[in-house]
Design a protein that fits this description.
mainly alpha; Hydantoin permease; 3-stranded antiparallel β-sheet; globular; transmembrane helix; amino-acid transport; AA_transpt_TM
Length: 481
Protein backbone atom coordinates (compact mmCIF):
# COMPACT_ATOMS: atom_id res chain seq x y z
CA UNK A 1 0.00 0.00 0.00
CA UNK A 2 1.43 3.39 -1.05
CA UNK A 3 1.08 6.78 0.64
CA UNK A 4 -1.75 9.28 0.14
CA UNK A 5 -0.03 10.93 -2.83
CA UNK A 6 0.49 7.59 -4.60
CA UNK A 7 -1.55 6.08 -7.37
CA UNK A 8 -3.19 3.15 -5.56
CA UNK A 9 -4.51 2.37 -2.10
CA UNK A 10 -5.52 -1.27 -1.78
CA UNK A 11 -6.09 -3.88 0.91
CA UNK A 12 -6.55 -7.38 -0.53
CA UNK A 13 -8.91 -8.74 2.12
CA UNK A 14 -12.35 -7.26 1.53
CA UNK A 15 -14.27 -9.07 4.24
CA UNK A 16 -13.56 -6.49 6.91
CA UNK A 17 -11.17 -3.97 5.40
CA UNK A 18 -11.78 -0.82 3.37
CA UNK A 19 -10.43 -0.83 -0.17
CA UNK A 20 -9.54 2.45 -1.91
CA UNK A 21 -8.06 2.70 -5.38
CA UNK A 22 -7.68 5.37 -7.99
CA UNK A 23 -10.29 5.03 -10.71
CA UNK A 24 -9.08 4.48 -14.25
CA UNK A 25 -10.89 4.78 -17.59
CA UNK A 26 -11.38 1.37 -19.21
CA UNK A 27 -13.38 2.52 -22.25
CA UNK A 28 -13.51 5.97 -23.81
CA UNK A 29 -15.39 7.72 -26.62
CA UNK A 30 -13.88 9.57 -29.57
CA UNK A 31 -13.23 12.63 -27.37
CA UNK A 32 -11.32 10.68 -24.70
CA UNK A 33 -14.15 10.81 -22.15
CA UNK A 34 -15.69 7.70 -20.53
CA UNK A 35 -17.92 5.87 -23.00
CA UNK A 36 -21.46 7.21 -23.03
CA UNK A 37 -24.23 4.66 -22.55
CA UNK A 38 -27.43 6.74 -22.75
CA UNK A 39 -30.25 5.83 -25.11
CA UNK A 40 -33.71 6.99 -26.17
CA UNK A 41 -35.36 5.89 -22.94
CA UNK A 42 -32.82 7.32 -20.51
CA UNK A 43 -32.91 10.64 -22.37
CA UNK A 44 -36.71 10.61 -22.31
CA UNK A 45 -36.65 9.92 -18.56
CA UNK A 46 -34.29 12.86 -17.97
CA UNK A 47 -36.55 15.16 -20.00
CA UNK A 48 -39.78 14.02 -18.31
CA UNK A 49 -38.14 14.45 -14.90
CA UNK A 50 -37.16 17.99 -15.86
CA UNK A 51 -40.48 18.99 -17.47
CA UNK A 52 -43.15 17.47 -15.25
CA UNK A 53 -42.71 19.27 -11.97
CA UNK A 54 -45.29 19.78 -9.29
CA UNK A 55 -46.41 22.76 -11.39
CA UNK A 56 -48.48 20.29 -13.41
CA UNK A 57 -50.98 20.46 -10.56
CA UNK A 58 -51.51 24.20 -11.23
CA UNK A 59 -52.62 23.66 -14.82
CA UNK A 60 -56.29 23.31 -13.81
CA UNK A 61 -56.05 26.83 -12.39
CA UNK A 62 -54.41 28.01 -15.63
CA UNK A 63 -57.15 26.52 -17.80
CA UNK A 64 -59.76 28.09 -15.50
CA UNK A 65 -58.32 31.55 -16.13
CA UNK A 66 -58.30 31.07 -19.91
CA UNK A 67 -61.35 28.88 -20.48
CA UNK A 68 -61.82 25.78 -22.60
CA UNK A 69 -60.83 27.29 -25.96
CA UNK A 70 -57.79 29.41 -25.05
CA UNK A 71 -56.67 27.04 -22.29
CA UNK A 72 -56.49 23.91 -24.43
CA UNK A 73 -55.09 25.85 -27.41
CA UNK A 74 -52.32 27.33 -25.25
CA UNK A 75 -51.30 23.89 -23.95
CA UNK A 76 -51.08 22.51 -27.49
CA UNK A 77 -49.36 25.56 -29.02
CA UNK A 78 -46.58 25.77 -26.43
CA UNK A 79 -46.09 22.03 -26.69
CA UNK A 80 -45.46 22.47 -30.41
CA UNK A 81 -43.14 25.44 -29.91
CA UNK A 82 -41.07 23.57 -27.33
CA UNK A 83 -40.81 20.48 -29.53
CA UNK A 84 -39.75 22.58 -32.53
CA UNK A 85 -37.09 24.68 -30.80
CA UNK A 86 -35.74 21.63 -28.94
CA UNK A 87 -35.25 19.84 -32.25
CA UNK A 88 -33.34 22.86 -33.57
CA UNK A 89 -31.08 22.75 -30.52
CA UNK A 90 -30.53 18.99 -30.84
CA UNK A 91 -28.93 19.52 -34.25
CA UNK A 92 -26.35 21.82 -32.67
CA UNK A 93 -24.68 19.24 -30.41
CA UNK A 94 -21.93 18.51 -32.94
CA UNK A 95 -20.16 20.94 -35.24
CA UNK A 96 -21.35 20.31 -38.82
CA UNK A 97 -17.77 20.81 -40.12
CA UNK A 98 -15.50 19.05 -37.61
CA UNK A 99 -17.99 16.82 -35.81
CA UNK A 100 -16.66 18.11 -32.47
CA UNK A 101 -19.05 17.81 -29.54
CA UNK A 102 -20.50 20.72 -27.58
CA UNK A 103 -20.81 19.41 -24.04
CA UNK A 104 -23.03 22.19 -22.66
CA UNK A 105 -25.71 24.61 -23.79
CA UNK A 106 -23.39 27.59 -23.32
CA UNK A 107 -20.73 25.98 -25.56
CA UNK A 108 -23.31 25.65 -28.34
CA UNK A 109 -24.12 29.35 -27.96
CA UNK A 110 -20.44 30.41 -27.89
CA UNK A 111 -19.51 28.41 -30.98
CA UNK A 112 -22.45 29.71 -33.01
CA UNK A 113 -23.24 33.19 -31.67
CA UNK A 114 -20.00 34.47 -30.08
CA UNK A 115 -18.65 35.27 -26.63
CA UNK A 116 -21.11 38.04 -25.68
CA UNK A 117 -24.08 35.73 -26.20
CA UNK A 118 -22.16 32.96 -24.39
CA UNK A 119 -21.83 35.10 -21.26
CA UNK A 120 -25.50 36.12 -21.42
CA UNK A 121 -26.58 32.49 -21.83
CA UNK A 122 -24.38 31.24 -18.96
CA UNK A 123 -25.71 33.94 -16.62
CA UNK A 124 -29.37 33.22 -17.35
CA UNK A 125 -28.92 29.43 -17.43
CA UNK A 126 -27.11 29.07 -14.10
CA UNK A 127 -29.32 31.61 -12.33
CA UNK A 128 -32.35 29.66 -13.54
CA UNK A 129 -30.94 26.26 -12.57
CA UNK A 130 -29.79 27.43 -9.14
CA UNK A 131 -33.19 28.98 -8.54
CA UNK A 132 -34.90 25.73 -9.50
CA UNK A 133 -33.11 23.67 -6.84
CA UNK A 134 -33.98 26.24 -4.17
CA UNK A 135 -37.59 26.25 -5.33
CA UNK A 136 -37.68 22.45 -5.29
CA UNK A 137 -36.40 22.44 -1.71
CA UNK A 138 -39.33 24.65 -0.69
CA UNK A 139 -41.92 22.76 -2.76
CA UNK A 140 -40.82 19.36 -1.46
CA UNK A 141 -41.02 20.62 2.13
CA UNK A 142 -44.56 21.89 1.48
CA UNK A 143 -45.62 18.41 0.31
CA UNK A 144 -43.99 16.73 3.32
CA UNK A 145 -45.66 19.18 5.68
CA UNK A 146 -48.98 18.54 3.93
CA UNK A 147 -48.67 14.83 4.76
CA UNK A 148 -48.10 15.65 8.44
CA UNK A 149 -51.03 18.07 8.44
CA UNK A 150 -53.34 15.58 6.72
CA UNK A 151 -52.48 12.85 9.23
CA UNK A 152 -53.02 15.30 12.09
CA UNK A 153 -56.51 16.24 10.85
CA UNK A 154 -57.37 12.58 10.29
CA UNK A 155 -56.27 11.58 13.78
CA UNK A 156 -57.51 14.60 15.78
CA UNK A 157 -60.43 15.97 13.79
CA UNK A 158 -60.95 18.71 11.25
CA UNK A 159 -60.99 21.51 13.82
CA UNK A 160 -57.75 20.46 15.56
CA UNK A 161 -54.84 22.95 15.63
CA UNK A 162 -52.29 21.39 13.26
CA UNK A 163 -49.59 24.02 12.84
CA UNK A 164 -46.64 22.68 10.83
CA UNK A 165 -43.09 23.95 10.38
CA UNK A 166 -41.50 23.36 6.99
CA UNK A 167 -37.97 23.97 8.28
CA UNK A 168 -37.14 20.44 9.53
CA UNK A 169 -38.23 19.02 6.18
CA UNK A 170 -36.02 21.46 4.26
CA UNK A 171 -33.06 20.50 6.44
CA UNK A 172 -33.74 16.79 6.01
CA UNK A 173 -34.05 17.16 2.25
CA UNK A 174 -30.78 19.12 2.18
CA UNK A 175 -28.98 16.31 4.01
CA UNK A 176 -30.34 13.74 1.54
CA UNK A 177 -29.31 15.88 -1.45
CA UNK A 178 -25.75 16.17 -0.10
CA UNK A 179 -25.41 12.41 -0.47
CA UNK A 180 -27.16 12.28 -3.86
CA UNK A 181 -25.07 15.17 -5.18
CA UNK A 182 -22.03 12.87 -5.12
CA UNK A 183 -23.44 11.06 -8.16
CA UNK A 184 -20.62 12.13 -10.54
CA UNK A 185 -22.57 13.27 -13.62
CA UNK A 186 -25.62 12.86 -15.85
CA UNK A 187 -24.27 9.53 -17.09
CA UNK A 188 -24.76 8.02 -13.63
CA UNK A 189 -28.11 9.70 -13.01
CA UNK A 190 -30.29 7.54 -15.25
CA UNK A 191 -31.85 5.33 -12.57
CA UNK A 192 -32.70 8.30 -10.35
CA UNK A 193 -34.35 10.03 -13.33
CA UNK A 194 -36.35 6.92 -14.19
CA UNK A 195 -37.69 6.70 -10.62
CA UNK A 196 -38.45 10.45 -10.61
CA UNK A 197 -40.27 10.20 -13.95
CA UNK A 198 -42.40 7.32 -12.64
CA UNK A 199 -43.26 9.38 -9.55
CA UNK A 200 -44.32 12.34 -11.71
CA UNK A 201 -46.71 10.07 -13.61
CA UNK A 202 -47.98 8.67 -10.31
CA UNK A 203 -49.01 11.92 -8.64
CA UNK A 204 -50.34 13.34 -11.92
CA UNK A 205 -52.45 10.22 -12.36
CA UNK A 206 -53.78 10.48 -8.80
CA UNK A 207 -54.78 14.10 -9.41
CA UNK A 208 -56.45 13.18 -12.71
CA UNK A 209 -58.20 10.17 -11.12
CA UNK A 210 -59.61 12.19 -8.23
CA UNK A 211 -60.78 14.93 -10.61
CA UNK A 212 -62.39 12.41 -12.96
CA UNK A 213 -64.16 10.73 -10.04
CA UNK A 214 -65.54 14.12 -8.97
CA UNK A 215 -66.82 14.81 -12.48
CA UNK A 216 -68.38 11.35 -12.92
CA UNK A 217 -70.15 11.65 -9.55
CA UNK A 218 -71.88 14.79 -10.82
CA UNK A 219 -70.09 17.14 -8.43
CA UNK A 220 -68.10 19.00 -11.09
CA UNK A 221 -67.85 22.77 -11.03
CA UNK A 222 -69.28 25.33 -13.45
CA UNK A 223 -67.06 25.89 -16.50
CA UNK A 224 -67.22 28.42 -19.35
CA UNK A 225 -65.60 28.81 -22.76
CA UNK A 226 -63.75 31.96 -21.61
CA UNK A 227 -62.85 30.91 -18.06
CA UNK A 228 -63.43 32.90 -14.88
CA UNK A 229 -65.86 35.71 -15.43
CA UNK A 230 -65.47 39.39 -14.59
CA UNK A 231 -67.94 40.43 -11.93
CA UNK A 232 -68.24 40.60 -8.17
CA UNK A 233 -64.85 39.85 -6.64
CA UNK A 234 -62.96 39.95 -9.97
CA UNK A 235 -62.20 43.11 -11.91
CA UNK A 236 -61.29 43.23 -15.59
CA UNK A 237 -57.73 44.22 -14.65
CA UNK A 238 -57.35 41.27 -12.25
CA UNK A 239 -58.78 38.94 -14.91
CA UNK A 240 -56.10 40.19 -17.34
CA UNK A 241 -53.29 39.67 -14.81
CA UNK A 242 -54.50 36.16 -14.12
CA UNK A 243 -54.56 35.36 -17.84
CA UNK A 244 -50.97 36.62 -18.19
CA UNK A 245 -49.89 34.44 -15.28
CA UNK A 246 -51.72 31.45 -16.79
CA UNK A 247 -49.99 31.94 -20.16
CA UNK A 248 -46.68 32.10 -18.33
CA UNK A 249 -47.37 29.03 -16.16
CA UNK A 250 -48.27 26.94 -19.20
CA UNK A 251 -45.29 28.14 -21.25
CA UNK A 252 -42.82 27.51 -18.41
CA UNK A 253 -44.32 24.08 -17.76
CA UNK A 254 -42.64 22.88 -20.96
CA UNK A 255 -39.20 24.35 -20.27
CA UNK A 256 -36.20 22.04 -20.28
CA UNK A 257 -33.93 23.52 -22.97
CA UNK A 258 -31.43 24.75 -20.37
CA UNK A 259 -30.33 21.14 -19.79
CA UNK A 260 -31.08 19.66 -23.24
CA UNK A 261 -27.47 19.66 -24.48
CA UNK A 262 -26.23 18.20 -21.21
CA UNK A 263 -28.78 15.38 -21.56
CA UNK A 264 -27.77 14.82 -25.18
CA UNK A 265 -24.15 14.47 -24.07
CA UNK A 266 -25.11 11.25 -22.26
CA UNK A 267 -26.14 9.46 -25.49
CA UNK A 268 -24.15 6.79 -27.28
CA UNK A 269 -22.48 7.92 -30.51
CA UNK A 270 -24.46 5.45 -32.62
CA UNK A 271 -27.06 6.02 -33.83
CA UNK A 272 -26.29 9.77 -34.23
CA UNK A 273 -27.07 11.70 -31.05
CA UNK A 274 -29.26 14.32 -32.74
CA UNK A 275 -31.55 11.66 -34.21
CA UNK A 276 -31.97 9.92 -30.85
CA UNK A 277 -32.47 13.25 -29.07
CA UNK A 278 -35.20 14.32 -31.49
CA UNK A 279 -37.03 11.05 -30.88
CA UNK A 280 -36.61 11.54 -27.12
CA UNK A 281 -38.04 15.06 -27.49
CA UNK A 282 -41.09 13.66 -29.28
CA UNK A 283 -41.62 10.87 -26.73
CA UNK A 284 -41.18 13.13 -23.70
CA UNK A 285 -43.09 16.19 -24.94
CA UNK A 286 -45.97 14.10 -26.33
CA UNK A 287 -46.28 12.15 -23.08
CA UNK A 288 -46.05 15.34 -21.06
CA UNK A 289 -48.67 17.10 -23.18
CA UNK A 290 -51.11 14.20 -22.72
CA UNK A 291 -50.72 14.41 -18.94
CA UNK A 292 -50.94 18.21 -18.99
CA UNK A 293 -54.17 18.10 -20.96
CA UNK A 294 -55.67 15.53 -18.58
CA UNK A 295 -54.63 17.45 -15.45
CA UNK A 296 -55.71 20.80 -16.86
CA UNK A 297 -59.00 19.69 -18.42
CA UNK A 298 -60.18 17.16 -15.83
CA UNK A 299 -59.11 19.50 -13.04
CA UNK A 300 -61.07 22.37 -14.59
CA UNK A 301 -64.09 20.15 -15.16
CA UNK A 302 -63.95 19.02 -11.51
CA UNK A 303 -63.62 22.44 -9.86
CA UNK A 304 -64.84 24.81 -12.57
CA UNK A 305 -63.95 28.49 -12.42
CA UNK A 306 -62.94 28.12 -8.76
CA UNK A 307 -60.12 25.64 -9.55
CA UNK A 308 -57.36 25.81 -6.89
CA UNK A 309 -53.71 26.67 -7.55
CA UNK A 310 -52.78 23.12 -6.54
CA UNK A 311 -55.13 20.42 -7.81
CA UNK A 312 -54.49 18.12 -4.84
CA UNK A 313 -55.36 20.74 -2.23
CA UNK A 314 -58.78 21.08 -3.82
CA UNK A 315 -59.69 17.68 -2.41
CA UNK A 316 -58.87 18.88 1.11
CA UNK A 317 -56.76 17.31 3.83
CA UNK A 318 -59.47 14.83 4.74
CA UNK A 319 -60.79 11.96 2.63
CA UNK A 320 -59.37 10.10 0.85
CA UNK A 321 -56.48 11.34 2.99
CA UNK A 322 -54.28 8.30 2.29
CA UNK A 323 -54.46 8.81 -1.48
CA UNK A 324 -53.57 12.51 -1.23
CA UNK A 325 -50.73 11.52 1.12
CA UNK A 326 -49.50 9.04 -1.47
CA UNK A 327 -49.57 11.74 -4.16
CA UNK A 328 -47.56 14.09 -1.93
CA UNK A 329 -45.02 11.31 -1.29
CA UNK A 330 -44.65 10.88 -5.05
CA UNK A 331 -44.14 14.64 -5.44
CA UNK A 332 -41.33 14.54 -2.88
CA UNK A 333 -39.61 11.59 -4.55
CA UNK A 334 -39.91 13.26 -7.94
CA UNK A 335 -38.45 16.53 -6.70
CA UNK A 336 -35.55 14.70 -5.05
CA UNK A 337 -34.56 13.38 -8.48
CA UNK A 338 -35.40 16.57 -10.37
CA UNK A 339 -33.15 18.51 -7.94
CA UNK A 340 -30.16 16.51 -9.18
CA UNK A 341 -31.13 16.81 -12.85
CA UNK A 342 -31.15 20.61 -12.59
CA UNK A 343 -28.11 20.82 -10.30
CA UNK A 344 -25.76 18.69 -12.42
CA UNK A 345 -24.96 21.42 -15.02
CA UNK A 346 -24.11 23.84 -12.18
CA UNK A 347 -21.89 21.26 -10.51
CA UNK A 348 -20.19 20.44 -13.80
CA UNK A 349 -19.52 24.09 -14.68
CA UNK A 350 -17.41 24.72 -11.56
CA UNK A 351 -15.66 21.34 -11.73
CA UNK A 352 -14.75 21.74 -15.42
CA UNK A 353 -13.33 25.19 -14.73
CA UNK A 354 -11.26 23.84 -11.82
CA UNK A 355 -9.88 21.00 -13.95
CA UNK A 356 -8.74 23.45 -16.62
CA UNK A 357 -7.23 25.73 -13.98
CA UNK A 358 -5.38 23.00 -12.04
CA UNK A 359 -4.92 20.07 -14.45
CA UNK A 360 -2.30 18.32 -12.26
CA UNK A 361 -4.00 18.68 -8.89
CA UNK A 362 -4.99 15.40 -7.25
CA UNK A 363 -7.51 17.30 -5.11
CA UNK A 364 -9.29 18.47 -8.26
CA UNK A 365 -8.82 15.55 -10.64
CA UNK A 366 -8.19 12.31 -8.74
CA UNK A 367 -11.06 9.85 -8.40
CA UNK A 368 -10.91 7.31 -5.57
CA UNK A 369 -13.05 4.22 -5.30
CA UNK A 370 -14.11 3.49 -1.73
CA UNK A 371 -16.01 0.43 -0.66
CA UNK A 372 -16.19 -3.02 0.87
CA UNK A 373 -15.33 -5.53 -1.83
CA UNK A 374 -15.16 -4.75 -5.53
CA UNK A 375 -18.89 -5.15 -6.08
CA UNK A 376 -19.87 -2.38 -3.66
CA UNK A 377 -17.84 0.72 -4.40
CA UNK A 378 -18.29 4.48 -4.36
CA UNK A 379 -16.25 6.91 -6.47
CA UNK A 380 -15.08 9.94 -4.47
CA UNK A 381 -13.44 13.16 -5.62
CA UNK A 382 -12.50 15.68 -2.94
CA UNK A 383 -13.42 18.78 -4.97
CA UNK A 384 -16.79 17.24 -5.79
CA UNK A 385 -17.38 16.34 -2.15
CA UNK A 386 -16.64 19.82 -0.79
CA UNK A 387 -18.07 21.97 -3.61
CA UNK A 388 -21.34 20.11 -4.09
CA UNK A 389 -21.98 19.79 -0.35
CA UNK A 390 -21.41 23.53 0.03
CA UNK A 391 -23.81 24.30 -2.84
CA UNK A 392 -26.58 22.15 -1.33
CA UNK A 393 -26.07 23.70 2.11
CA UNK A 394 -26.27 27.22 0.64
CA UNK A 395 -29.42 26.36 -1.36
CA UNK A 396 -31.04 24.94 1.80
CA UNK A 397 -30.16 28.04 3.84
CA UNK A 398 -31.67 30.33 1.17
CA UNK A 399 -34.84 28.18 1.17
CA UNK A 400 -35.05 28.44 4.97
CA UNK A 401 -34.56 32.20 5.05
CA UNK A 402 -36.74 33.00 2.02
CA UNK A 403 -39.76 30.67 1.99
CA UNK A 404 -41.41 32.94 -0.61
CA UNK A 405 -38.63 32.04 -3.06
CA UNK A 406 -41.13 30.36 -5.39
CA UNK A 407 -42.32 33.86 -6.29
CA UNK A 408 -38.73 34.76 -7.16
CA UNK A 409 -38.50 31.52 -9.11
CA UNK A 410 -41.54 32.56 -11.16
CA UNK A 411 -39.68 35.73 -12.10
CA UNK A 412 -36.48 33.80 -12.94
CA UNK A 413 -38.57 31.41 -15.02
CA UNK A 414 -40.13 34.32 -16.91
CA UNK A 415 -36.72 35.84 -17.58
CA UNK A 416 -35.15 32.53 -18.56
CA UNK A 417 -37.94 31.03 -20.66
CA UNK A 418 -37.67 33.19 -23.76
CA UNK A 419 -33.87 33.29 -24.24
CA UNK A 420 -33.18 29.67 -23.31
CA UNK A 421 -36.17 27.93 -24.88
CA UNK A 422 -36.83 30.13 -27.91
CA UNK A 423 -34.32 32.88 -28.75
CA UNK A 424 -30.99 31.02 -28.62
CA UNK A 425 -32.18 27.86 -30.45
CA UNK A 426 -33.73 29.97 -33.22
CA UNK A 427 -30.72 32.30 -33.56
CA UNK A 428 -28.33 29.32 -33.62
CA UNK A 429 -30.42 27.72 -36.36
CA UNK A 430 -30.42 30.95 -38.38
CA UNK A 431 -26.65 31.36 -38.00
CA UNK A 432 -25.85 27.72 -38.88
CA UNK A 433 -28.09 27.63 -41.93
CA UNK A 434 -27.30 31.20 -43.05
CA UNK A 435 -30.99 32.08 -43.43
CA UNK A 436 -31.43 35.42 -45.19
CA UNK A 437 -33.05 38.31 -43.33
CA UNK A 438 -36.63 39.05 -44.35
CA UNK A 439 -36.99 35.71 -46.10
CA UNK A 440 -40.20 33.78 -45.44
CA UNK A 441 -38.49 31.34 -43.08
CA UNK A 442 -36.70 34.13 -41.23
CA UNK A 443 -39.98 36.00 -40.71
CA UNK A 444 -41.70 32.86 -39.43
CA UNK A 445 -38.94 32.22 -36.91
CA UNK A 446 -38.99 35.83 -35.72
CA UNK A 447 -42.77 35.63 -35.28
CA UNK A 448 -42.29 32.73 -32.85
CA UNK A 449 -39.59 34.78 -31.13
CA UNK A 450 -41.84 37.82 -30.76
CA UNK A 451 -44.88 35.90 -29.46
CA UNK A 452 -42.85 34.08 -26.83
CA UNK A 453 -41.11 37.29 -25.77
CA UNK A 454 -44.49 38.95 -25.18
CA UNK A 455 -45.63 35.96 -23.09
CA UNK A 456 -42.42 36.10 -21.04
CA UNK A 457 -42.76 39.86 -20.41
CA UNK A 458 -46.41 39.49 -19.39
CA UNK A 459 -45.55 36.61 -17.04
CA UNK A 460 -42.66 38.59 -15.55
CA UNK A 461 -45.01 41.47 -14.74
CA UNK A 462 -47.42 39.04 -13.09
CA UNK A 463 -44.63 37.44 -11.04
CA UNK A 464 -43.42 40.86 -9.85
CA UNK A 465 -46.94 41.59 -8.64
CA UNK A 466 -46.99 38.25 -6.77
CA UNK A 467 -43.54 38.89 -5.28
CA UNK A 468 -44.66 42.27 -4.02
CA UNK A 469 -47.61 40.67 -2.20
CA UNK A 470 -45.35 37.98 -0.70
CA UNK A 471 -42.85 40.52 0.64
CA UNK A 472 -45.62 42.41 2.45
CA UNK A 473 -46.53 39.33 4.51
CA UNK A 474 -43.02 37.82 4.77
CA UNK A 475 -42.06 36.30 8.12
CA UNK A 476 -38.87 34.20 8.23
CA UNK A 477 -39.05 30.73 9.82
CA UNK A 478 -42.83 31.04 10.15
CA UNK A 479 -44.83 28.02 11.34
CA UNK A 480 -47.81 27.49 8.99
CA UNK A 481 -51.27 27.06 10.43
Amino acid sequence: MQGFGGEIFQVESCESALEIQKVGNAEVDDDGKPRRTGNLWTASAHIITAIIGSGVLSLAWGVAQLGWIAGVATLVIFSGITLYTSSLLADSYRSPVTGKRNYTYKEVVRNNLGRAMYLACATVQYANLSGMVIGYTITASISMAAIQKSDCFHARGRQAPCAVSHNPYMIGLGILEIFLSQIPNFHKLSMLSVVAAIMSFAYSSIGVGLALAKVVSGQGGRTTLTGVEVGIGLSAAEKTWRMFRAFGDIAFAYTYSQILVEIQDTLKATPPENQVMKKANVVAVSTTTAFYLMCGCFGYAAFGNSAPGNLLTGFGFYEPFWLVDLANCCIVLHLVGAYQVFAQPVFSAVESWAKRKWPKSNFVNAEYSIGFCRSQRLSVNFLRLIWRSSFVILATVVALVMPFFNDILAFLGAMGYWPLTVYFPIEIYIAKNKIRRWSRRWLGLQLINAVCLLVAVAAACGSIQGLNKALKTYKPFEVKE
